[in-house]
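Name: DUF983 domain-containing protein
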Amino acid sequence: MGAHTSKIQAVLTAKCPKCRVGKMFVGNTYSFKKQRMNDVCPYCGFRFEIEPGYFYAAMYVSYVLSVGQVLAAGLLTYQISKSESPWVYLGVLMATILIFAPFNFRYSRLILLHYLTPKVKYDPKYEDALGDDRP
Ligand SMILES: [Zn+2]
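Structure predicted for DUF983 domain-containing protein:
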């Protein structure tokens, strides 16, 4: 019997919330290709968009993530540069939003599915069925 993937591990590796085996996204977070999410889990067939418009809620999660990142980047910029120019902070703000956009796209959906949707339940039977040879 193989070990089970923890929730945090599943989120960090962008796995399906139901089986924690199949990948939710195609390709890497940072690449020159457009981000693509699988419609259904390639392993267990779970449909990620559990109801129409479900991922609109991910925008709020993404917003919260962005605010945190912008604040952290702003504070860090102040610590390093002690600058009081609004243009410096505006530049940092824009750069932070751009740099984190692919990350937030991916992790807002993962957080929404894994942590904020109680009806989406992890089912360990899929990992049990794998045994020790994982894909
Ligand atoms: Zn799955």
